[in-house]
Structure formats: C-alpha cells, structure tokens
Amino acid sequence: MNSKEALQQIRALFEDMPQVVEPVAPAVTKVEMAEYSLVDGTKVMISALEIGGMVTMADGSPAPVGEHQLMDGTSIQVDELGVIVEISSPKEDIIVEEPVAPAAEVAPAQDTNAMIQELKAEYEKKKMELDAKIAELESKVKQGFAQVAELVEALSNTPTAEPTQRAANAFQSYVNTNDSKYDRLEKYRNAILNK
Predict the structure, then answer these.
(1) CB 43: neighbour CB atoms within 10 A?
(2) Beta-carbon contacts of residue 87 (< 8 Å; ≥ 6 apart)
(3) Quick check: 61 and 86 in contact, CB under 8 A?
(4) Of 15, 26, 48, 189, which one has the fewest beta carbons inside 10 Å?
(5) C-alpha closest to that of 38 among 78, 97, 79
(6) What is the 3-state secondary structure (H, E, C) of 67-115?
(7) What is the pLDDT of residues 100-121, one digit of tens each?
(8) What is the spatial distance between Cα 158 and Cα 138, in angstroms, rounded to a whole number?
(9) How far apart are CA 109 and CA 81, in angstroms?
(10) Domain edges within the chain
C-alpha cells in the first residue's frame, strides 16, 4: 500500500461516520399542583389531596417519607416517591382506605409509577443506543490513528536514493577539485624549482 492509498482509506473511514443527533426529550405531562402549608410553616405542593396524590417540596423534590400534618390538621402519610398512601382527618380521625378503582381505570399512583418506569426504560434504551454509537466511533478513531501511524512509519522507512547520491557526488567533486588544485600548485612549484 502506498501513501496515497493509505490516505484515501483514512479519509473514507472518517467520511462514513454518522452525524451526531441530539436526543429529543419525551413530552412530559404537567400535573396541576396546589400549594399547602404544613404545621411548621413549610410549603408543599400536592397534586390531589387523596391517596395516590403526589407531594413535593417547594423546590420540586419529593416530600420526605413519613407523616406530615397540614395547617388544617389533616395528616398525610407519604412514601419514598412522595405519593400519599394514607390520609387522616382531625375531625374523624379515621384512616381513609385507598378507593377501589374500576377495572378499566388505573389509580393515579400506579399511573405515575408506570409513567416513571416507562420513561426510565426509554432513557435506558436511548443511553444504550448512544453508548453503542460512541463505541463504534471510538473504534473508527482508533483504527484511523493506527492507519496514520502505519502510514508515517511506511513513509519514514521509504528509502530516498536521490539525496544520498547528490551528497556522494558533491564529495567527489570537492575531492576532485582539490586534487586538481593541488596538482596545479605542484606543477607551479616544480616549475619554479627546476628553473
């Protein structure tokens, strides 16, 4: 393989690289949230004051796990995802059981969890696709650098006869020129001495 063929192979390797496409974020449905105050004055956002409603802090993070009491005396029990799992009223002090959802309808907590799992699966799939593309690009870059190194090595090992011949000829002409000058001087010397 000569240097021109190697350069053409390297160029072809990088020309067929895919264009990097920005991933499109999936559409997220917005849930209406109402602001409530806890007994200690902390502001929280609640999607629905019922079992399955989402409770978030003012900064958007899920509410901590445990029981929280609202200003009106209502107590809510929240799980690790910020979903209401139990509500108790100050007047009745009765634990409200989770309403039985009709067979065709999905409870809000299950719907939210399903949506979270679906988004997570979609992001993992996209991440795997991008990781595969990155690995492919890294492989092509490594292969390209290997070919460039091979080309440089081949070029450095290519013999160049012309400059070496010129140098040898230049030395010969220098030696010949000096020898002829020496011969001429010797002739002049001998001529002067033999007079």
Answers:
(1) 11
(2) 49, 50, 51, 74, 75, 76, 77, 95, 96
(3) no
(4) 15
(5) 78
(6) EEEECCCCEEEECCCCEEEEEECCCCCCECCCCCCCCCCCCHHHHHHHH
(7) 555 555 456 677 888 888 999 9
(8) 30
(9) 10
(10) 1-26+110-158, 34-99, 162-195
Residue type, 90: P
Could you read off the pLDDT of 27-83 as tens digits, one per residue?
A: 555 556 788 888 888 899 888 888 888 898 888 888 889 998 888 888 899 998 889
For 148, other C-beta atoms within 10 Å of its C-beta total 13
Element holding 14 (H helix, E strand): helix 3-15
Average pLDDT over residues 147-158: 81
- Give the span between the Cα atoms of 137 and 141, in whole angstroms: 6
